[in-house]
Structures are given as structure tokens and as C-alpha cells.
Amino acid sequence: MIELGGSIFLENFDELDKGTLVVIKKIIGNYTRKISSSVVGYKKITVSIKEKSEFEIHVKVEADKSIESIAKNKNLFFALDRALAQVLE
């Protein structure tokens, strides 16, 4: 597990190459700023990935009310963007 800034946790991202991981961290960091300011009682966010024929991203936000989302796509960045955007909907 990778921990970013104390309230962001990435599960199963260890096997991705460094260049991809840098972009993923930036995307998650930007969304987390938006989520933490719009979700009441935000505590932490956990993002996990499953690789099969397509990428499956699970996002769990712990706050006063827990929020979860799942997105699948053959493109990792599209799946990540969709899963994080669902939390803000």
C-alpha cells in the first residue's frame, strides 16, 4: 500500500511503472482536494486497482457518511477519472 499525505491510500498500485504512478498521484491528489472540501467530515480516501482484461478502480471515502464508487475501463486513466468523479456526484 502506498500512502500519500496521511489521508490518501493506494492499494495494489505497487506494480505500475513510475511514470504512470506519477500521473496517477497527481490525478488522485487533485480530486482529493475537491472531495475533501465538498464532502462533510472527510477523513480519508482509499483507491484500489484490479487488473484483468480491463482496469477496475474502487474508491472509498471515509467521512461522516461513507462513499464508495467503482469504475471499469480498458484505459487506466479513464477508469480512475470516472471512479473519482462519481464520488463528487
Describe this structure in words.
- The protein is of the alpha+beta class and 89 residues long.
- It has one domain (2-88): Ribosome hibernation promotion factor-like (Double Stranded RNA Binding Domain, 2-Layer Sandwich), CATH 3.30.160.
- Helices cover 38% and strands 34% of the residues.
- The protein has two helices and five strands, in the order ββαβββα.
- The chain has helices spanning 18-38, 76-88; strands spanning 2-4, 8-11, 44-51, 55-62, 67-73.
- The chain has a five-stranded mixed sheet with strand order 1-2-3-4-5, with helices on one face.
- A hairpin with a 3-residue loop joins strand 3 and strand 4 (55-62).
- Helix 1 (18-38) runs parallel beside helix 2.
- The longest helix has 21 residues, at 18-38.
- It starts with a strand and ends with a helix.
H-E order: EEHEEEH
In helices, the fraction of residues equals 25-40%
Give the overall pLDDT as a whole number: 95
Query: What structural class do the secondary elements suggest?
Result: alpha+beta
Oligomeric nature of the chains:
single chain
**Runs with pLDDT <50, length 5+?**
none
Concise account of the structure shown:
By secondary structure, the chain is α+β, with helices and mostly antiparallel strands.
How are the secondary structure elements laid out?
Blueprint: E1 2-4, E2 8-11, H1 18-38, E3 44-51, E4 55-62, E5 67-73, H2 76-88
Helix pairs in contact: 1-2
Which short descriptors sum up this protein?
89 residues; Double Stranded RNA Binding Domain; 38% helix; globular
